[in-house]
């Protein structure tokens, strides 16, 4: 707990010096209303010093005879084009590192202190293209379970808000 309290103090100073944008870049569009509503609920709770921006990547058209490898590669190309320059890239991938919420708060603190914006990347039904994975500095696993991609958006937004609340000693996490 002493470590987290120290982070709270240093994060207040970081916020004065740095404004961080977190880009949630996700394959998929035309989500049901409940997905957008859930995502928006947590994204709007984050202060402007830690803005969460959703960038949707059009998924490739899939049929039973589709060339899935080609589709994933093309989705990867569109995803790479959507990543802002000089951003810290984190993939969301099952083989990634499973962070606890306090570990995510520590990662957020590092991101704030780096002065860089962050891009969190969520792949399509078959995952992320290798070209995207190679760009990542970190890989985060939400779980060994497979979640529906629309739900991942909400979980990530909530966890980012929770991490922010830990850094600022906000009662949300208690």
From TrEMBL:
Gene3D superfamilies in alphabetical order: 3.40.1280.10
UniProt-listed CDD domains: RlmH-like
EC number: 2.1.1.177
Keywords (A to Z) from UniProt: Cytoplasm, Methyltransferase, rRNA processing, S-adenosyl-L-methionine, Transferase
Reactions mediated catalytically: pseudouridine(1915) in 23S rRNA + S-adenosyl-L-methionine = N(3)-methylpseudouridine(1915) in 23S rRNA + S-adenosyl-L-homocysteine + H(+)
Binding site for S-adenosyl-L-methionine: 92, 123, 142-147
Subcellular location per the Swiss-Prot or TrEMBL entry: Cytoplasm
Domain of life: Bacteria
GO CC terms of this entry: cytoplasm
Pfam families: SPOUT_MTase
GO MF terms held by the record: rRNA (pseudouridine-N3-)-methyltransferase activity
NCBIfam families per UniProt: PRK00103.1-4 (NF000986), tRNA_RlmH_YbeA (TIGR00246)
Recorded family membership: Belongs to the RNA methyltransferase RlmH family.
Subunit and interaction comment: Homodimer.
Function: Specifically methylates the pseudouridine at position 1915 (m3Psi1915) in 23S rRNA.
Name of the featured protein: Ribosomal RNA large subunit methyltransferase H
Natural source organism: Methylobacter tundripaludum
